[in-house]
## 1
Amino acid sequence: MSGASRILANDIDPIAGMAIRLNCELNQLNPFPILTKNILDLEQDKWDLVVLGDMFYDEDLADSLHQWLKNCFWTHRTRVLIGDPGRPQFSGHSIQHQLHKLIEYSLPEPTRRENNGLTTSTVWDFQP
């Protein structure tokens, strides 16, 4: 967030919004706006960078999100980074043909146990 002129966090879960605020406090960051409406349903804004994580857990959501991300990229030249722990809905989605792996992380053991055997998480660069 260093150097960003504008930041918007988005999660439809208000508890996630509270977690974002707490994370800002813990990391001594100035709070920034948090939108708890589905951003996919709103008029698309111009963003230089969209960072999202673990959003391809549902096929319908994945399809809508894929279209939204393509619109961001082609309309505003938005860079898109996607983090995903290798869920089958993501691994089998058509977006895979438009991704380039940046880095892969091993998940800590407690996270592996909580997530049904998922062992890594990968950051992808979306390039349609």
## 2
Amino acid sequence: FMNCTWQAGRDAPGDTQYFLYWRNSRYDDAMECELYITDENGRNMGCRFQNVKIEIEKAYFLVNGSSKNSLIQFYDEYIQLYKI
């Protein structure tokens, strides 16, 4: 089980929709969010992953977006994961 959340960009148009992908390593296929958390306007603002198996300490995450009115800057990062 893993939750991820993000905020809309400062200048993001109202029709912007976001999508989250992650993978354990550069050799694995990216997995899209299974269950998005949406705001009051139906915009994806988070994700709930079920059945997550973390095999390494750092995982790759990508949030990208789409809009009819503007290009949306993506955000990607390798993030250090910790065992709880």
## 3
Amino acid sequence: MNVNDTEITWAILQKSGYLRTRRLEEADVILLVTCSIREKAEQAIWNRLRHLTALKSKRLRSQAPLRIGILGCMAERLREEILHKEKLVDIVAGPDAYRDLPRLLAVAETGQQAANVLLSLDETYADILPVQTSPDATSAFVSIMRGCDNMCSYCIVPFTRGRERSRPLASILREVKVLSDQGVKEVTLLGQNVNSFRDTSEVQFRLAATPGLSRGFSTIYKAKEGGLRFAHLLDQVSRVDPEMRIRFTSPHPKDFPDEVLQLIQERHNICKQLHLPAQSGSSRILEAMRRGYTREAYLALVQHVRDSIPGVSLSSDFITGFCGETEDDHQQTVSLLRQVRYNVGFLFAYSMRQKTRAYHRLQDDVPAEVKHRRLEELISVFREEATRANEAMVGRSQLVLVEGPSKRSAAELCGRNDGNIRVVFPDTEMEDSTGSGAVVRAQPGDYVLVKVTAASSQTLKGALLRRTTLRESAAHR
């Protein structure tokens, strides 16, 4: 999401005449796009700000004054502290105020501090075409909705990003078409709760049928009637370019109707990979988190997903050390990791956030050292199980989108398979089965078949077979 915010910001500033530099000492304006979900992310920004403030104090008088700004969630959450207490920045802009950046920077040019952290009920930046930070990238992010209405007790997002609102379908399709024309081979649809997409921008859309929740799941809010839903969006996006992979993140497990699962199974260019954030394996803790489901309902959904999409790759989020978590609760999370055997995992120790329900009603009563121990155990179990899941691919061919050279060796290339797992393979000549039959070398943006020879919890290694296409690969599944 921060990458997409950066691209939106740059599109706005570029139209106002700003030029970009990659050399810090040349910059007259430095903007930090921030996240408030975890304390560690905020601490990294505080450290960065103090470094930049030192850089600002060393600025020569012959140069234009250096202006520093904070954008995004941290700006909305800590405006007073950033501007007045610490006095480290010149401008502060919340996630719904990026259009106001040219004005805020103009105010800062006069030597005053400037801020806009107002949250909007309708801002989606639908009319702004983001400018990619890496023009030669093979993949891109497309924001389809902003905000979240779930109000999980631990989460700051509804307070920093506001209520859910979705972009019009037409504007999303236009952006995906532009990316396709630019040669982008993979698009990730983005949203804080991406699969709750609901487009009501046209009157006829408001009469559309309302899909049900996943079995055994509930919400704290009343069901929203009408609007074009995520299944319709996914269907339309996947039709833009049959040779463009489609992913989406981050979803909520409650919003996986059968129509979405069926579409993922049927379309060769929708990745057979789902992110199912569990957060905990304990029903008692899930209730305290206000997640709207039990362990049993979550496991039933996992089985239904695997029955609907054979070979699907699963990833998840987990928080350890949440308020009131006992050793038994923790062990239930350990057992969930073992039972589901995720391919990819994102695991964190709980850090309490101001404004959340947990901050007002619960106690952060798990000691830091216990959180650390439990996190280490979860990471260890996840890696063990992910290694087993990935080892099942050894000896099989994987379709890989080439991203570029491996960071560890110039003689190797890397990319990601359909399940979003990193694949490393030698940069050697191969057969081109896309039509010419010539011997070629893989380039970023190519689809190649790789036979997996080894696997770890995070990476597959293999031998390059041939260059191919999404359609050709799907035909030989």
## 4
Amino acid sequence: MSFTGKYELQSQENFEPFMKALGVPDDQIQKGKDIKSISEIVQDGKKFKITVTTGTKVLCNEFTIGEECEIEMLTGEKAKALVQMEGNNKLIANVKGLKSVTELHGDTITNVMTLGDLTYKRVSKRI
């Protein structure tokens, strides 16, 4: 199953408390909470390029499954990460105590990020 495509955010849960816990400034949280971000994923075998556009903010990360890489986090900080694939539709990344699980089902991508006991869930649909 290929992740390649463009996806628009449909819903999210726990955005504000999660972003605060990450250290995102309040003004950025307020600006970003109601914007429907667009995620563009390009998959070429084990190589991925993910670009997330939220208003004027663009976050772009590239990685290869099973190889250590540098990821730009939501705060703008760069950190080492390792992304694994489970089956053919689930990506799992661990970055600085944050666990991210991205799962593709048909035209829907669900991303669940966990930091300590806080969970942030995003659901996006292919456009």
